[in-house]
Amino acid sequence: MEKSLSYISISHKTASVTQREVFHIPKEEKKDLVARLCETFPDISGLLLLVTCNRTEIYFESLTTPAVAVRNFLVCIKSSSSDVEISRLFKSSDTTEKTVRHLLEVSSGLASSVIGDVEIVHQIKKAYHFSIELNLQGSLLERAMQTVFKSHKRISNETLFRDGTTSMAYKALKVINHVYDKALVKEKRILFIGAGDIVIQLFKYNSKFNFKNIYVSNRTEEKAVVLAKRHGAKVLGWDTVLRNDFQDFDIIIGAASSCANLVKNIPTAGMDLVLLIDLAVPCNINKDLSRNENVLLYDLDTISMDLEETKEKRMAAIGKVGDIIGEELLVYTEWLQKAPLRAFLAEYKILVNQKVVDYFETDLEEYDLKTVKTVTDRVIRRVKRRTSPSIPLEEIDAVIAEQVSFL
């Protein structure tokens, strides 16, 4: 029985932020989840766990485990409800080609909430490194990742699809410019909550906006201190955040992992407008705060919807990106179809190698392993050129003698 590569996915295309955050898997829970998955489904030999602010996806290589079983497993451990409607929030496939196509569309940015997002391929690369650490790269998955990286390089080199910046962090900073008067925005007091990838991106893109009065707070204060020193910001104690003591902050951007409902109270007395931007999953900011007339709240869904700036050159490049994905998927499929031949040749090569050794031991007094390998490889190349998959055993000695004569 041959292995197949399957996937399950819940994303912004199938579910709201509130629905997605139920299935968000914090960093500290990933290893345990993968261990439980592999224990429950022992035929899984490769696995990629992709968790971003917009999607939770599991790609897995197995002999018999169907995607629906992995989906039900995730629903069971992450949701208190077994409602059939929850299952409908997921996309899935048990076909290797369809799974690889989905992975290519995700990694390229075609499936992102902002078309052409470049951060996603780095998140996939990080997820794959995690798979390698757990020795779960698998052969089908490993080849799929090679296809992802080759496609990414081609899209960057052959199209305009990567031009411009479209990350959520950049969009969040642009919201600030949209909301506040240009003359006053530089004076606004801004708080970044968290110190992970999103906050690092916020500081990175702030070089384009030049907001000056920035504070950063994080559970591990050392990380906040490092970021503050590096970017000329100030540190706000985590205890202050837990107390919701946000006096005089005009703008709060939540990006802390595993901190649901962290911001529950905002002092608005004397404030014209408080802007809250929630980039976290689960959400850091209580949505009820948006009922206050002095509060403006953006979450991941609204920030994508309100600030979608799809450039014409990106839209024009979509067709070319699709062509590249199709071409690389075809290469993968051809490789997949040759898997039985590769397995046969691997076993056949062992047989040929032993026949070569026997030939040298019988007919020659001296030989070395390098010569044995050279002759074996030449015989195998002859096999690959034949229409039939092997040379009859009685003919191998003649082929070996012929190849030795060419040395």
UniProtKB/TrEMBL annotation:
Active-site residues, as the UniProt record annotates them: C53
Pathways involved: Porphyrin-containing compound metabolism; protoporphyrin-IX biosynthesis; 5-aminolevulinate from L-glutamyl-tRNA(Glu): step 1/2
Keyword NADP: yes
Reactions catalysed, as given in the entry: (S)-4-amino-5-oxopentanoate + tRNA(Glu) + NADP(+) = L-glutamyl-tRNA(Glu) + NADPH + H(+)
A Pfam family it matches: GlutR_N
Domain Quinate/shikimate 5-dehydrogenase/glutamyl-tRNA reductase: from-to ranges: 185-303
The protein's Enzyme Commission number: 1.2.1.70
Enzyme class: oxidoreductase
InterPro entries reported in the protein's UniProt record: 4pyrrol_synth_GluRdtase (IPR000343), 4pyrrol_synth_GluRdtase_N (IPR015895), GluRdtase_N_sf (IPR036343), NAD(P)-bd_dom_sf (IPR036291), Shikm_DH/Glu-tRNA_Rdtase (IPR006151)
GO biological process: protoporphyrinogen IX biosynthetic process from glutamate
Binding site for NADP(+): G194, A195, G196, D197, I198, V199
Positions of substrate binding: T52, C53, N54, R55, S112, D117, V118, E119, Q123
Swiss-Prot/TrEMBL site (Important for activity) positions: H102
One Gene Ontology term of the molecular function aspect: NADP binding
Alphabetical UniProt keywords: NADP, Oxidoreductase, Porphyrin biosynthesis
Domain Glutamyl-tRNA reductase N-terminal: from-to ranges: 8-159
Oligomeric form and interacting partners: Homodimer.
HAMAP family: Glu_tRNA_reductase (MF_00087)
Family indicated by similarity: Belongs to the glutamyl-tRNA reductase family.
Additional record remark: During catalysis, the active site Cys acts as a nucleophile attacking the alpha-carbonyl group of tRNA-bound glutamate with the formation of a thioester intermediate between enzyme and glutamate, and the concomitant release of tRNA(Glu). The thioester intermediate is finally reduced by direct hydride transfer from NADPH, to form the product GSA.
Name of this protein: Glutamyl-tRNA reductase
Gene label: hemA
